[in-house]
Each structure stands twice: as structure tokens, then as C-alpha cells.
Specification:
The complex is a heterodimer of chains A (346) and B (264).
Chain A lengths: L1 E10 L2 E10 L4 E6 L5 H9 L6 E6 L2 E2 L10 E4 L11 H6 L9 H14 L15 H14 L4 E5 L7 H16 L3 E6 L2 H7 L2 E6 L2 E7 H6 L4 H6 L5 E7 L3 E4 L3 E4 L8 E6 L5 E3 L9 E12 L3 E7 L3 E7 H7 L6 E6 L4 E4 L1
Parallel strand pairs in A: 3-8, 3-9, 6-7, 7-8
Antiparallel strand pairs in A: 1-2, 1-4, 4-5, 9-10, 11-12, 11-14, 12-13, 14-20, 15-19, 16-17, 16-19, 17-18
Chain B lengths: L7 H27 L2 H9 L1 H34 L5 H13 L2 H12 L4 H8 L8 H25 L3 H9 L4 H29 L3 H6 L6 H12 L1 H33 L1
Helix pairs in contact in B: 2-12, 3-7, 3-9, 4-7, 5-7, 7-9, 8-9, 9-12, 11-12
Classes of the chains: A alpha+beta (346), B mainly alpha (264).
Chain lengths: 346, 264
């Protein structure tokens, strides 16, 4: 229903190159990328607020690249919500309805419907100046939904919200999507992609470097950038030999189960499945390496240890284990992992 | 923030500042004090004075409203559009503030006299702008319109472009976006500009006296009374007119104060 074909634009320092994307009806598509890569620009191109240098935007197979902004049925919700400060919550939500020829009782019905969906019925008569970020976001969503867009474009909708508000809003977005609204959501947070999307595209350096079903992209990242960006550590390029070994990043040889007998590919080793110890331990694990601990990073419930064994390996251990084994930065340690803990991506 | 003791620097500031305030207040105050309540009362009963004050108020008000119809869209255009000679255009808008107003009057007179294209067109329908309220309105607008354009342009610049984009995206036409988003959000600045233009028009003498001595606006009436009868007779008219102007000045200050407190 929405298709971007070879969209390119150069704006000051950054540029978008040959962006191709296709959204089907009902999709929840997440566009992942760091801040400042042009995600917002892409949304503004779709909404018609910016014209691309080249390329086309299609909606239901119609070329809308040069269509007037107000005639596209594409609704954009900006990161800063863009609530009209001189209007009340109700007037904000009613804004798109003025153009439509519907009577007042139907208008009120629509306003109440979307206010209730977004849980802001109690705020309708309030001014917008003293509302919280979460409330403003809901007003912006209700106002957009009332205009009945075919496709909703969300610019970092969760970025400026507190953690407790994020959960509620995620549910609301899911609900909106399930009601049949196609959503294109741009974010820098891969967790949002996992939580919400069925499809994902990763934008880097002005280009889409991988796109597809969310599960596929997260399971089979195309390169190290995508892997890191989607929260995957221990992603390596590997050259396989027939005898079940592989050389990773052209430096370290490891034992791996290569049933498909591939020669080149990528591997992921889950940090939770790597054992770290002060001495070498005898076990069924066939990969045992000595290395130097480069960094210990604390998290809420565990720690990540970065250990250099020829390549940097990320190992996750519990607080308890860290205390027990007294690992220190710049000290030596052993790591071991089974060849079956290695995921091979052709 | 409170300082208990005044430093030497504070004392210097107070003395210099006080002298300037005194300089502004004393001539006005002495004029008020030199006018007796009876003189004031008689002046407010003087039909010539009343007529001239009404004429001044009416013409300045109408010229402000009439020129605002073009000035506000121009201010919006200047706030939103980038173009090559924008600085030059901004400079042209400020021109009436910096040129002598008598010279502005001469320019306007040349523009509307019977020899000019506009004058010829007007006289063909039996109108003569020279010595006519329309001529006065043009002279007033010429010298006061920069105040409106500049204030409105600043107001529009302060309206986030994103709000306008959002309104367009919600299906509003550019015209509706201007009327429902840009104009209301810049309204306080525009209103300040309108009042400033109106007040500036009220007090204009130099440009108007050249275009139209009659019908007589109050600043010219004051000048005429001074020339014909002297200081004593010009003073009560001045006091009454100053009171009228002060009302608008206070109104302006109150409005801009409201704006500050709303922005805080």
C-alpha cells in the first residue's frame, strides 16, 4: 500500500541513497537507525513535507511524490508531538475534522472514540500547556487517528517517555496497528522493533543495509553493524573448513558444527552460553581459550565481560559469579563454549 | 539576588538613569502643571479640538487596519521564505523610520499629487488625495508601517514551522493553516505591532503637514495654535492629546506584559 522507490536526497551534511521500502496493509514496519541518519527526513518525504531529489513514493500504486501534503492520507506524529499550544485537547483532536463535512454530533462521537482509545477522555477540556509527555503523545495520536490516515508515520514515539509510560504506549500502538492501521515507526531502539514490528529495515550511512521480517533480521543479521545495532554481541565473519572448524575474523580458529558444509558465513555466539573461569576447566566444551579481560560492564541484573581471546568476546555472568570468582579488568581468564552454542548463518 | 548595600557602581547607575528619567518626565510634567483644570475643561469643549482628535484617531485607526491587510501577509512571507534580496527588502521596510519625516511627506505628496499616476487616477473619479483624509492616512501609514511589519515578522518567526507542517499533514489547506495556526500564535506580536503603528500614526506631524494641512489632525492643530496664539494656547490641546496617546501607550505596555507572563 505504501512503496518507496529509489528515494535519494541530499540535505546539508547527510544524504539518503536509493531507499526502497514496501509496506503492506496492516504492517508494523520499524525503521532502525542511529540518530541523525535521516529517518525523520524519510518520514517527511512520505508525508510530502520535503521533496526528494529523486525517486518516487507510491500509495496504493498511485504516484504521490508530487501530491499536495493535505491530500495524502499519510499521518505523521513528530517526536516533539507538535500539539497546537493555543488550542485545548479537544480542539486539537477536532482539528482534522473541520475540513470534513460531518455534523457536530458525529464529530463528538469520533473525538470521544479516539480519546477513549488513547485514554485521554478526562483531558478533553484541558489546555495542553501542563500536560505530561505521555499525555501529549496520546493527544497527538488521537488527533492523527481522527483524520483516518491509511498509514501512520511515527517519529521516535517512545524516545522521550519515562520507562513506566513506554509500556502503556507500546500497548496502545499495538492496539492501533491491530485495528488495521499500517504503521511505519522510526527509532534507534532495537527493543522497540522486537516488541512491536513484524518487519524491520536498518538504515546506516544513508542506505538501508538490511530489511525483512523482524524475526529474520534479528536471527540473521547481514553484517556486524546490523548485529551490533540489533543488540547481538559476538557476531563474527567465519571461513569454514570441512573438518568442522572455522576461522573467525581471519584470526581465531574455533570448533564448530558445520552440518551444511558451507565455506563462508557468519556466526553468533550467545554471551550467556560462554563459561568464564580463572583456570582451564575440563568439560565437554570443545572451545577453550585463554584471554585478557578488557572491560567489565555492570547491568541491572548481571555483568558483561569483554575478554580478548584474539577477538573480543562478550560474556554475560551473574553478579554472584562475579563476586565469587573475583574477575578483574586486565587480568587473565579462560573461556569455554560448546560448538553447539555457535549459531551458523550462511 | 537582593543586594543589601549599594556599590559605587550602583550609585553611578542610579544617578545617570535618574537624570534621563527626569529629562523625559519634567517637560511633560511642567506642561501638565502649567495647565489649569479650567483650561483643560474648556479645551475638551472646543469643537475644533474634538473634531481634530476624532479625525486623528479615526484616520490612524483606519490606515492601520487597511495597511495591515497587506502588511501581515508580507511579514509572514518574510518570516518563512528565503530569497536572494531578503536583507535588502528588510532594509527597505525600515527606511521610513530612518528618513526625515518631512522628506517622507514630500515623497508622498509627489506620489499622490494630481501630476502623478495615482493622483490622476483618483481625480478621474473626483478624488483629490492632497488635503484629504486619504492623503493623511497614506502619510501616517508610510511612516508607521515598519513597526507593524517588524513586529509581525518577529511573531511569525517564533511560530514553529513544525506546527504548520503538522496542520498541513492533518489535512488543512495552507490558507487555513495561516488563519488557524500561524496567525493566532503570532497574534500577540501582531497586536503589539498594530497598536504601535496606530500610536505612531496618531503622533505623526512632519509627513502629514506636507500632504494635508487641512483637515487638521491634532499635531497640526497644536502647531497652528502655537504659531497663531502662542504657548499658552497650544499647551491645553497638547495635554489633552498626550492623555489620549498615553491611554494607548499604557494599553500597549499592558499587552506586551501579558505576552511576557504567558511566555514565562
Amino acid at each position: 500500500m505504501l512503496k518507496l522507490k529509489d528515494i535519494s536526497i541530499k540535505l546539508g551534511e547527510f544524504r539518503l541513497k536509493n531507499i526502497n521500502l514496501e509496506l503492506n496493509k496492516g504492517d508494523y514496519y520499524v525503521l532502525l537507525g542511529k540518530s541523525g541518519v535521516g529517518k525523520t527526513v524519510l518520514l517527511e518525504i512520505i508525508a510530502g513535507l520535503i521533496k526528494p531529489d529523486s525517486g518516487k513514493v507510491f500509495q496504493n500504486n498511485l504516484d504521490i511524490t508530487r501530491e499536495k501534503i493535505q491530500n495524502r492520507k499519510v499521518g505523521i506524529v513528530f517526536q516533539d508531538y507538535s500539539i497546537f499550544p493555543h488550542l485545548t485537547v479537544k480542539q486539537n483532536i477536532a482539528y482534522p475534522l473541520k475540513r470534513k463535512k460531518i455534523n457536530n454530533s458525529n464529530k463528538d462521537e469520533l473525538i470521544n472514540k479516539y480519546a477513549s482509545l488513547t485514554n485521554i477522555t478526562h483531558l478533553l477540556d484541558r489546555n495542553t500547556q501542563n500536560l505530561s509527555g505521555g499525555e501529549l503523545q496520546r493527544v497527538a495520536l488521537a488527533r492523527m487517528l481522527v483524520s483516518n490516515p491509511n498509514c501512520l508515520l511515527l517519529d521516535e514515539p517512545l524516545a522521550s517517555l519515562d520507562i513506566q509510560l513506554k509500556g502503556g504506549l507500546r500497548n496502545l500502538l499495538r492496539q492501533i496497528n491491530q485495528s488495521g492501521v499500517t504503521i511505519l515507526h522510526v527509532t534507534h531502539d532495537y527493543e522497540e522493533a522486537i516488541a512491536l514490528s513484524n518487519k524491520v529495515a536498518v538504515l546506516h550511512d544513508g542506505e538501508i543495509i538490511q530489511k525483512g521480517l523482524t524475526k529474520e533480521v534479528f536471527r540473521k543479521p547481514a553484517n556486524e553493524f546490523v548485529a551490533n545495532f540489533t543488540g547481538i554481541k559476538n557476531f563474527f565473519i567465519a571461513e569454514f573448513t570441512p573438518i568442522n572448524t572455522a576461522k573467525i575474523n581471519k584470526t581465531l580458529e574455533i570448533n564448530v558444527s558445520n552440518k551444511d558444509e558451507i565455506t563462508k558465513g557468519k556466526i553468533i555466539i550467545r554471551g550467556e552460553e560462554i563459561i568464564i573461569s580463572n583456570e582451564r576447566i575440563e568439560s565437554s566444551a570443545t572451545n577453550n581459550f585463554k584471554g585478557r579481560i578488557k572491560q567489565i560492564i555492570p547491568y541491572l541484573t548481571n555483568h558483561e565481560i569483554i575478554i580478548d581471546i584474539g577477538v573480543d568476546l562478550s560474556v554475560v555472568i551473574s553478579d554472584e559469579s562475579l563476586r565469587k570468582f573475583k574477575f578483574k579488568e586486565n587480568s587473565e581468564a579462560w573461556v569455554s563454549f560448546k560448538s553447539t552454542a555457535i549459531k551458523v548463518i550462511p | 539576588m537582593y543586594k543589601n548595600k549599594l556599590s559605587n557602581f550602583d550609585i553611578v547607575l542610579l544617578i545617570l538613569g535618574g537624570l534621563i528619567l527626569l529629562f523625559i518626565i519634567s517637560p511633560l510634567l511642567s506642561m501638565f502643571l502649567a495647565t489649569t483644570p479650567l483650561q483643560l475643561f474648556e479645551t475638551t469643549q472646543d469643537q475644533e479640538v474634538i473634531d481634530s482628535i476624532w479625525l486623528t484617531l479615526r484616520v490612524s485607526f483606519l490606515s492601520t487596519i487597511f495597511f495591515a491587510i497587506g502588511a501581515i501577509p508580507l511579514a509572514y512571507f518574510l518570516a518563512r521564505t528565503k530569497f536572494k534580496f531578503k536583507k535588502l527588502v528588510n532594509g527597505i521596510i525600515d527606511l521610513p523610520i530612518v528618513i526625515p519625516h518631512s522628506a517622507a511627506g514630500i515623497a508622498i505628496l509627489g506620489f499622490i499629487s494630481r501630476d502623478s499616476v495615482l493622483g490622476k487616477a483618483a481625480s478621474s473619479v473626483g478624488l483629490n488625495f492632497v488635503g484629504h483624509p486619504v492623503g493623511i492616512a497614506l502619510a501616517m501609514a508610510f511612516v508607521s508601517i515598519p513597526f507593524l511589519i517588524n513586529a509581525a515578522r518577529d511573531g511569525f518567526i517564533n511560530v514553529p514551522v513544525k506546527l504548520e507542517k503538522t496542520a498541513l499533514n492533518l489535512g488543512a489547506s495552507p490558507f487555513r493553516v495561516f488563519l488557524t495556526i500561524s496567525l493566532p500564535l503570532a497574534w500577540k506580536n501582531i497586536l503589539s505591532g498594530l497598536i504601535m503603528m496606530f500610536a505612531r500614526g496618531l503622533s505623526e506631524f512632519g509627513a502629514v503637514v506636507i500632504v494635508a494641512y487641512h483637515p487638521m489632525i491634532t499635531p497640526i492643530l497644536i502647531y497652528e495654535r502655537f504659531g497663531a496664539f502662542g504657548l499658552k494656547y497650544a499647551r491645553p490641546v497638547s495635554v489633552v492629546f498626550i492623555i489620549v496617546c498615553l491611554v494607548f501607550f499604557i494599553l500597549l505596555r499592558t499587552l506586551s506584559k501579558e505576552k511576557e507572563s504567558n511566555n514565562a
